Amino acid sequence: LNSSNYGQYLLNDHVSGNLKFYVKGAKHLSRKLEKNVVADVELEYPQLLAGDFKEDDTINSLDWSIMNAHWWLENPDYDLTGDNVVNTLDWSIINANWGKRGDGLEDGVSF
């Protein structure tokens, strides 16, 4: 992932057909990418949504409880903005993604 939670992957193992790819990063919801692959291809997947501390592919009060336990502490594991402090900036990200579920969860894929 880059700093904006986007990324790329080079697929060059001679795979072809209509394929579904699922991407999930730590603290992020999973995203699905569907692509018709006919040759070596570089996949660009959409932005991953942050705030899934429980890693259950849903952002809800369980994630807030985990983050709240680290409030005002310098802890990059629970920081979403990259400033190494768990604070209202991180809460604003969880709040913006509140109630959202990952594509993998919706499709019955586990990670």
Give an overview of the whole structure:
The protein has 111 residues and is an alpha+beta fold. The protein is 19% helix and 26% strand. The strands form 3 sheets. It has a two-stranded antiparallel ribbon with strand order 1-5. A two-stranded antiparallel ribbon has the order 2-4. The model has no long low-confidence stretch (mean pLDDT 87).
Provide the descriptors you would attach to this structure in a database record.
elongated, two-stranded antiparallel sheet, single chain, 111 residues, alpha+beta, 19% helix
Percent range for β-strand residues: 25-35%
What's the arrangement of strands in the largest beta sheet?
1-5
Rg (C-alpha, Å): 16 Å
Number of helices: 3
The rounded distance between the terminal residues' Cα atoms is 17 Å
**What's the β-strand tally?**
6
Average pLDDT confidence is 87
Assembly of the depicted chains: single chain
Biggest β-sheet strands, sense, barrel: 2 strands, antiparallel
User: Which range best describes the helical content: under 10%, 10-25%, 25-40%, 40-55%, 55-70% or over 70%?
Assistant: 10-25%
Shape: elongated
What letter string, H or E per element, gives the SSE order? EEEEEEHHH
Low-confidence stretches are: none
Structural class of the secondary structure composition? alpha+beta
